[in-house]
Structures are given as structure tokens and as C-alpha cells.
Design goal:
CATH architecture: Alpha-Beta Barrel
Largest sheet: 8 strands, parallel, barrel
CATH topology: TIM Barrel
Order of helices and strands: EHHEHEHEHEHEHHEHEHH
Number of strands: 8
Bound molecules: pyridoxine-5'-phosphate
Distance between the termini: 6 Å
Number of domains: 1
Helix content: 40-55%
């Protein structure tokens, strides 16, 4: 059980706050470097089609200054793949994207988009970018992700995080555990994320073989109270304790 789970910190909402006034404050790069310094294993940013938080110039600036791997979340569009192939982040996580959503809703439907996703995954694979597909804990989706050549999946933990009762939370956790076993059996690396908080992250970190958790909203919200370095440290400590 004693394993290390990487913590990827999603800093989109630092950019959301900056964009609220149109200036530079808070300076995204400075915050990203502080997050790294505090022990994060990587920085995740989602370049959305509408650029509502992360902007193109953020991608380039972070790309040249980050010390940890950059994980670029994006939709599987030609525009985003073009940007990824230029920026060459360490990793790309392909997510579904709808203009009116508040945040990413549900995982990708890989089963019904085999050729589009397969083509985009191949381009990113060929460029040496580690591609992951953000999918629900569904065996058919996992099998399809494997079949189109994605080396990594990120399991959507939203259903687990939003569970209304402890029983529902338990059964969602079981789904995540079973999905992880199945994916690992296919040779896939398994990450997870969405809706994780200090209160629910431990059980997901404890899943045997979990590689990385990507956490954004709740960590940045906590940082308003205690500062980013401490918020990162708190999540790190909870994850480490859960994996002992
Ligand atoms: N992983 C993916 C693929 C996401 O789209 C998001 C949300 O941007 C996260 C992780 C982080 O989710 P949250 O902000 O709820 O922690």
C-alpha cells in the first residue's frame, strides 16, 4: 500500500481571479512557481476554447519557466492540437468541452469518437507528449482509450465527489478502484481528478497503483485562507498519510 501519488495542481482559477480585473494580479507564473516550491509534482492548466481563464501567452510563459512537468488540458480540436504540438508540454489531458459548462462535465465519450480521438492521440503521441484521456470509470471507455493508443487515462472523480450519501460515495469509490485495476491490466497509467477536496482526496490517493491526482478548485479556494504553499502542503500531507 505504501506508494507515492503525484500531486498535479490545476491553477486555472488563479487565472480566473487575474482576469476578473484584466491586469496581471495575481501573477500566474509567480503562483505556479510557489506551488512547485511547496511540493507539487506538476502544474495543470486548461486552455479552453473561450480562454476564460488560461490564455495562450500563459501557456508559453509557463512552458519556459516551470520546473515541474506541465500538463495541458484541452479539447480534441485541431486548434488545440496545433498549440500543443508547438508548446510541447510534458503531458496533454484531452477533455470534453462545452461552451456553456461551468467546469468539465463528465468524461470523454471515447467509444463514440474513436476515429477523431485516435487521430489526435496519434499526433500527440508522435510528438512525444504523454497523452491522457479524461474518462468516467467505465470499462468500455477505458478499453476504447487503450485501443486508440492513449498511454494514460485520468478517471473523472466528479460522481464520487458529488455523492449524496456515504453509501453512494462508497460505491463510487469502488467503481474507481475497479476501473483502476482494469486499466492497469491493460497497461495504462491511471490518474484521477475533479472535485477532490481535503475531505475526500485520501481515499482516492489510497487506490492501489494510482499515479497522479489533479486538483484545482478546492486547493485554490483553501489558499485564500492559508496561502498557496500551505494549501499545497495540506493536500500533500493528506495524500501521503492515506498511502502509508
Ligand atoms: N482534471 C481535469 C481533467 C479537469 O478538467 C479538472 C477541472 O478543470 C480537474 C482535474 C480539477 O478539478 P477541480 O478543479 O474540481 O479540482
Amino acid at each position: 500500500m505504501n506508494h507515492y501519488v503525484k500531486l498535479g495542481v490545476n491553477i486555472d482559477h488563479v487565472a480566473t481571479l487575474r482576469n476578473a480585473r484584466g491586469g496581471q494580479d495575481p501573477v500566474l507564473l509567480q503562483m505556479a512557481l510557489a506551488v512547485e516550491e511547496a511540493g507539487a509534482d506538476g502544474i495543470t492548466i486548461h486552455l479552453r476554447e473561450d480562454r476564460r481563464h488560461i490564455r495562450d501567452d500563459d501557456v508559453w510563459l509557463l512552458r519556459s519557466h516551470l520546473r515541474t512537468p506541465m500538463n495541458l488540458e484541452m479539447a480534441a480540436t485541431d486548434e488545440m492540437v496545433r498549440i500543443a504540438l508547438k508548446a510541447l508540454p510534458k503531458a496533454c489531458c484531452i477533455v470534453p468541452e462545452h461552451r456553456r459548462e461551468v467546469t468539465t462535465e463528465g468524461g470523454l465519450d471515447v467509444v463514440n469518437q474513436l476515429s477523431l480521438l485516435g487521430m489526435q492521440v496519434a499526433k500527440l503521441n508522435d510528438a512525444g507528449i504523454e497523452v491522457s484521456l479524461f474518462i468516467d470509470a467505465d470499462m468500455n471507455q477505458i478499453q476504447a482509450a487503450h485501443d486508440i493508443g492513449a498511454p494514460v487515462i485520468e478517471l473523472h472523480t466528479g460522481e464520487y465527489a458529488n455523492a449524496a450519501t456515504p453509501e453512494q460515495m462508497g460505491s463510487e469509490l469502488e467503481r474507481l478502484e475497479e476501473a483502476t485495476v482494469f486499466a492497469q491490466g491493460l497497461g495504462l497509467v491511471v490518474n484521477a481528478g475533479h472535485g477532490l477536496t481535503k475531505f475526500n482526496v485520501g481515499a482516492v490517493a489510497a487506490i492501489d497503483g494510482m499515479n497522479e491526482l489533479n486538483i484545482g478548485h478546492s486547493l485554490v479556494a483553501r489558499a485564500l485562507m492559508v496561502g498557496l504553499p500551505q494549501a499545497v502542503g495540506e493536500f500533500r500531507a493528506i495524500m501521503d498519510r492515506a498511502c502509508l
